[in-house]
User: What shape does this take?
Amino acid sequence: LVACNILTGIGTTLLIMYPVSYYVMDVNVCAPAMLVAVALAMSIDYSLFLLTRFNEERLDGRSITQSLEIALATQGHTIVVSGATLALCFTSMLVLPTSTITSMAAGAATAVLQSVLVSLSLTPALLLTMPRFFTADRMLGLTLDGTPFGTYRRASSGTVAQFGATIDRPTIIENPQPKKESIWAHVGRCSQRGAPVMFLFLALVMVPFAMALTRFSYVEDLTPLMQTTHPATKAFISISNIYGQDLTTPVQLLIMAPSQKAMASREWSLATCHMLQDLATKVTDRMHEEGHDYTMTTADFNGLMIFRGGCLADGLKFGVIDVMPAVHMYGMYDMVADLLSNRNQTATQVYVHCQVDLFSEVGEAWMRAVRASLPRPEVIRQPLGGHQDADSANYVPYGRWDDVEIGALHLYGMPLEQMDGAQYTLRRMPYVGLAIAAIVCIILGGSFGTALIPVRAVICIAWMLVVTFGASVMVYQLGYLEGLGIQALSPSSGQALFWISPSVAVAVLVGLGLDYDIFLMDSVMEHWQSGKDGKSAVVTSLDQAGTIISAAGIIMFLAFGALLASTTPVLNQIGFMLCVGVLLDCFVTTKVTIPTLMALVPDNANFWPLEQKTSMRERAFGGQTVFVQRPPPSFRRSLSWSH
Assistant: This one.
C-alpha cells in the first residue's frame, strides 16, 4: 500500500512538472532529485500516519469502515495541516529571483500536495476495495487474501478473524494483552521532571553550533552544481585552469551603438576605446579605495575597437609595423566583427578580463567596481532609498564620450548573475524566515486554537535550524569530517557552503519539523480533551506515537540520505542538512524539547484560550455505538465529523 502511494505520488508529480518545465519555467538539473526525495519521504510519512491510526482502531475492535473513518478524521487532519504548511513554506521560496531555487521549490510543493491527495484518496480506496489483502495478519501480511488469487480462512464459529473478513463487521479481540509503556514515554517523563535542567542543557548544546554559524560564508562558483565525476565537469575545470574564466564564465560588456553608420565610423570606435581606457583607470582607483591591491590595465579589454590596450582605429602595431591594413585586406577584421557583432552591425560585445578568480572576494569587488564605473549620464538618478537593483546597475541606457554618442551599455555574464542572485537571495532570507514563522503561527493557531503551541513550535524550529546549519558549517566549511575520506562529507571548492544550499534547505526543514510536531500535538490535544492533564497527555502521546515518529524519521533519513550518494556537491550539502534536521526533529524535538518546554509553562496555559472539555459524544458506526473524543476546533471538524 505504501509502495502504491509512493509510485503514484512521484508519477503524478513528474507528470505535472513536465509541462511546467516546458511552458512555465526553467527547471534546474537538481530539481528532479529534490522532487523525488520529497515525494518519497512525504508519501511514506503520510501513509504511516494514516495506517498506524487505522490499525490502532482495528485492534480496538472496530470494523474497517469505522477504523478508516476515525483515521481520516484524526490523522487526516494531521496530513492536511502538515501538507498545507509544507506547501506554503515551499511556495514562499518562489519570491526569490533564482531559477534554481524556484524550480526546486515548485517541484517540492507539487510533490507535497500530491502526497496529501494520494494519501487521503488512494489509501482509503485501496483499503475499502481489498481490505483483507492490506490488513491480513497471516504470514506477516505476505498473502493474497482479498484478491481473486487468494484464499481466506475464518476463525472458529462466533468470532471473526482479526483484521476482519467484512468491511462493516467489527472485530472481536479476545483477551487483549496490556501494552507495556514505550521507552519514549519514559524519555518524555524524565524531560518533564528535570525541565529546567534539560532546558539549560539544550541551550548549552546549541552554543557551539551557533558559534560555528557566525563563521558562515558561501561560494558562488558553478562547480557545486556539477557532478564531480562527470567527464563534462572535468573538462570544464580543465578548460578553466588552462584558458581561464574568460572562456568558461566570461564577463562581457555589450555596447549598442545608436546606428549601424555610427558603429562603422572611426569617431565612434575611438570614443568607445577611450571610454574603456578610462574605465580601467576608474576601476583601479575604486579597488584601491576598498583596500584591494588590484590594478586593471587597458589590455584587459578586447573587442572591435580595442586590442592589447590600444585603439584599433589608430592601427594595430607590432613593434613599429602597423598590421591593421593587412588585417582588413585579408578579411580577418570582418570575420572577427561577425563573431562579436549582431547581424545588423548595431551592437558589439567587449570581453572584460579579470586577473583573479571571479568568484573570490577580490573578484566580486572587481565586478562591483566595473559596474559602478560605467559612464552614466547626469540625468539618471538613484531610486528612492539609494538602492539600485542589479539590472539597473548593469545597464546604462545612454553613454557619451569625447562628445560622441556611444549608445547603451550592458555588463553581463554568469559570474555577475551568480553574485547578484546570491546577494539578493540571502539579503531577503530574513523576510522569508519571518513569512514562514507567520505561516507556522497562523496554521498551527488555526488548527489547534491555542496561542502558545505556535510560539513553542517556532522556538523548537529555531533551535533545530541553528544546530543543523551550524553542523553544516562545521562539516562543509571547517572540515570537521574531512578525515573520514568521504567525498560527500568534505568541503567543496572554496571551503564554504554553496549559497543555494541553505536557501533551499530552510523551507524543507521547517516543513519537516512541523510535520512531526503536528502529528504529536494532534495526539496531545486529543488526550487533553479527554480529561488528562498536559504532562500526562504528552507522555501518553509519546507512548502511542513516539515509535511511529521514530520509524517515519528513519525512513525520511534514508530517503534524504540518498542525496549524500549523489556526486553533485550542492545535493550533498542539502542532503546533509535534511538528514541532520530530520534526526533532530524525531529524536530530540519531539522526545525532549517539546515535553521540556511544555513542562516549564503552567498546564492550562499551554492550551489557552481553550477550555478542557471532558464530555464524550456518541457516534453510530455501522449500527455500533462508540464514544469518540470531541475534536479540537477548526480544521478537524471538516474531516468526516458530524455536528
Notes: The chain has a mean pLDDT of 79. The two ends are 32 Å apart (CA to CA). The CA atoms of residues 224 and 493 lie 7 Å apart.
